[in-house]
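I am still getting used to C-alpha cells and would like to learn alongside you. Please make up or recall a protein chain and show it to me in full. Would you write everything just below, so we can both look at the same thing?
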Amino acid sequence: MNTTGNGSSSWSCSSLINPEALKVGATVAYSLILVVSLVGNSLIVLIVYNTPTLRKPINMLIANMAMSDLLLPIFLIPVRLTDWHVGPWLIGGTLGQALCKIHPSLVEISMKVSIQSLVLITVDRYAAVVVPLRSPLISRKVCRCLIVGTWILAVPFCWPYLFTYNLVEYQEGKRCMNQWEVIFGEKSSFAIYLLSACILFFYIPFVVLVILYSIILIKLKKQVHPGEQSASAEEQRTRRNRNVLKMTIAIVVAFFICWIPFSIQLVTIYFIPKITLDCKFRVSYTVVYFMACTNCAINPIICLTCSSNYRQALRRLVNCCGAVQG
C-alpha cells in the first residue's frame, strides 16, 4: 500500500485551516509519534528478549510486531518531516536513488508483517482458550519459524516499489515519486495491485480475526466464572487467558481503527477517478494518514498498560540499567 505520497498538498487548503498552524501542529504530532514509537517498541523488544518468563509465543509475536513498527518511525516519519520543512529530496546520486526505493518498500513490509503477526497472535489465543487441553498449537520453535515467515512473505508483495519509485528532477529539486505507469503501463494496473494488497492484508485478515475472536468470546462466556475464594490452577489459567485476551483485542482493534480508514480512502482515490480532490478530501486524507502512523506508537502503550508482566519486566530493566550506571 502506498503510504509515501506527498503530504504537502493539504497545506494549501487555507480556506479550511491556517496552513502554518497545520504544519506546526502536524510536526509536533509526528515528532511525538516518532519518539514514543522508537522508545516504546524498543522497550517491548528488550523486555521480551531479556525476560525468560516472557519468551512465550504470544510475546515473541508481539515483539515481532514491535520490530516491524520500528520501521515506520525510522523510514517514514523523517521523510515526511523533511518534505514539509525542506522540500526536495536531500540526498542525490546512487545513495539517494537507493534510499528512495528502499524506504517505501520497508514501510509496506512493516504493515504487512504487523497484520500477519496479529493473525498469528489471534490463532495462539484461539488455541489457548478454545482447545486448552491440547499441546500448544504454536510452540516456541514453530513460532520462530513463523516470525521469519512473516518477513519472507511480506517481501514479494513489496518488490514492485523497488522498480517504480525513482528520484524525479523538478524545478525546485529532486523528489521521490512512484512512477508505476512509466514502469508497468496503465494506471489501472496499480489500482488493481493496491486493491489486491488491501484485500489480502486488511479485509480478509479483518474477517478472520472477527470470526476467531467471536468464537473465543463465546467460549469464555460459557465458562464458569471463578469464585472469589477459589484459586485452582484451572481458574488461574482462565484468569490469565482473559487478561492476555484483553490486551490482544485492544491491539487488534487499535490496528484496524488506525489503518482501515486510510486503506479505504486510498483505494477510493484510484477506483473513483471522478472524485474531486478538493481541500476537504485532502485534509481528510491527512487525518487518516496520521491515524495510520499513530498505530506504531499505540501498541507499546497498550502492552505496558494492560500487562502487569510487561510493567514488572520494565521496572526490572530500568533498575538493572540504574545499577549498572551506579
Summary: The chain has a mean pLDDT of 83.
